[in-house]
Amino acid sequence: MPGKKEPQSLTESALIARVEALEAELAQLRAHARSQNIPLPATGGPTAQTVPALIDALERVDDGVVVYDAEDRLVFVNKAYLRYLPEDLKAIYVPGAVFEDLVRAHTDRGLIDQAVGREEEFIRIRLDRHRNAMGLPAHRFANGIWYELMEYRLQDGGILTIRRDVSEWIAVTTALRENEERFRDFAEASQDWLWEMDENLRFSYFSDRFYWASGVRPEQLLGRSRRESLWDNPDEEPWKSHIADLEAHRSFRDFIHSRVRPDGEVNYLAISGKPVYDKDGAFKGYRGTGRNITT
Question: Does residue 175 share a domain with residue 97?
Answer without folding.
Answer: yes
